[in-house]
Amino acid sequence: MLTDIGITINGGHVGSYNMTTFQDNRQQAIRRTVIAFSSLFKDIPFLKYENGVELERIKVPIIYSNKEKYVKRLDGDPGEIDKKIQLTLPRIEYGLLSYQYDESRKLNLYNKNIGCNSLGNWYVNSPVPYNFNFELTLYTRNIEDANQILEYILPYFTPDYTVKVIMVPEAGVSNNVPVSLLNANMDEDSTGTFDSPVRSVFRTLNFVARSYIYPPARSVKPILQAETNIYVISAKKTFGLVSGNGVFTIGETVYQGETYDSATAKGTIEYFNTATVNAVSITVQGGTFRANGHIKNVFNTADYIITAEQSNLALSSVITPVPNTYPVVGTYDYNIVIHDYTQ
Predict the structure, then answer these.
(1) What is the CATH number of domain 4-220?
(2) What are the CA-CA distances from residue 233 to residues 95, 117, 238, 253, 311 (Å)?
(3) Short-list 148, 176, 147, 187, CA closest to 56
(4) Most exposed of 135, 174, 247, 321 (fewest Cβ within 10 Å)?
């Protein structure tokens, strides 16, 4: 029994699915792009005049169809269709002609878009860019009617008009899809004779919509706690003082070695205390100050033996959302707890 379907390419699989548990979780990106395109033309007004007087105003109906099929229908029905055409013109028909991969808009496939809804957390990988080629055809009784509809369309494409399309509702992902007008064929293309009661004029516009096709969305578990370890490394080093004599003043230069020129470490004093804590802080300018070694003052005879360097600051930040249940209804907050592990 066949349980998997897929296309094998170079030892791999494109879309390997278990037929028993398979669910249709496509994003319907092609359908969403087609609907977005048609929505641009769904509310075009049309006003009928006679002797300069407005007789009627309607919204031009729009349907998904094929131009060649409609023209053949006009040519092939000698009788009854004439009466029907008088009722259906003007009209707009559109169709998706083709789509091509657009390498110039390629994205990193490992990027993820993350979102959530009432059913859980979701992520979807980067989409694949495709250009969708559409043809839009106007059918009217005469040239003036066609021009009237065109003047409601052409000013908005310069040459692009951008429409926002929700591509992955689960992850809250949407794209701004530019729709570009490529050309508007103004050739006189009519059917019927001059004195025919029905005369149909065609105007054809070609568009490209630069859209995307998304892979299936995947559900992920929510993050209920985040912990970050922070280890602060600074040029400022702190040492304990074992014994010595003299005084170090903040800003003075100290070194470790026989002489300043042959020193193994150099720095400036940031803090010095022998009264209570017996500690000295040095901003290191070069080398490494060693434990049990002498630090000497360039400007006087101060000289002290130091202990091992005291630990750098080590912290842990724990962030917990409030409430820490899922899904969240309404607003939420978070708590931050800082743990100090410095020794």
Answers:
(1) 3.30.2000.40
(2) 63, 41, 12, 22, 9
(3) 148
(4) 247
